[in-house]
Amino acid sequence: MASPSPPPTPPTADEPPPPPTPDGDAPSPPTDAESPPPLPEADAPAAPPPDADADAPPLQQPHLPDGILEDIFLRLTTAADVARASAACASFRAITSALPFRRRFRALHRAPVLG
Predict the structure, then answer these.
(1) Of 114, 96, 115, 91, nearest to 106 (Cα)?
(2) Which PANTHER family does its entry note (predicted)?
(3) Which letter does DSSP use for residue 24 in this model?
(4) Which domain holds residue 101?
(5) Distance from CA of residue 38 to its chain's centroid?
């Protein structure tokens, strides 16, 4: 006499129920070879980066030449935008308050003629 097969285990709340097989029988539970690897926990702390370059000097911010910054500021459309940019740091203020920059900005962004 053959022993009856154990009833299939019900699915947990996290996983959807498996679809029935074409002949109407319940599918067999997946084996370890068929199951996907577990996903990493979202709340798990990230591993710290390797400390191989502990003696390396700190990285410096990239430096843009003043001419390139001036060209960027000339592309701003209003004087209010230039004023906001000049308030960001002293080097921006020096570029935007220089007489050659102000002349070029006024030449490129003339006030509309009314009338």
Answers:
(1) 96
(2) F-BOX DOMAIN CONTAINING PROTEIN, EXPRESSED, OS07G0554500 PROTEIN-RELATED
(3) S
(4) 66-108
(5) 25
**What is the per-residue pLDDT across 65-80, written as a single tens digit (0 to 9) for each?**
999 999 999 999 999 9
Question: Closest Cα to residue 95, out of 61, 71, 62?
Answer: 71
- The C-alpha atoms of residue 86 and residue 97 are separated, in whole angstroms, by 8
Answer yes or no: is 27 within a domain.
Answer: no
Between residues 79 and 111, the one the model is more confident about: 79
Separation CA 56–CA 65 (nearest Å): 26
Answer yes or no: is 36 within a domain: no
Residue 96, Cβ density class (10 Å: 0-12 exposed, 13-18 middle, ≥19 buried): buried
**Tokens at 44, concatenated:** 């798990």
The answer to the question of residue 55 being in a domain is no
Q: Which two tokens stand for residue 106?
A: 């006024």
Instruction: Provide the domain count of the chain.
Output: 1
